[in-house]
Amino acid sequence: MNKAQLVEAVQDRLGGRAAAADAVDAILDAIIRAVAGGDRVSITGFGSFEKVDRAARYARNPQTGERVRVKKTAIPRFRPGQGFKDITSGAKKLPKSGSAAAKASPTPRPGTSAAKKTAAKKSAAKKATTARKTTAAKTTAPATRKTAAAKPAAKKATVAKKAATAKKTATKATAAKKTAAKSTAKKTASKRAK
Question: Which pTM was predicted?
Answer without folding.
Answer: 0.48
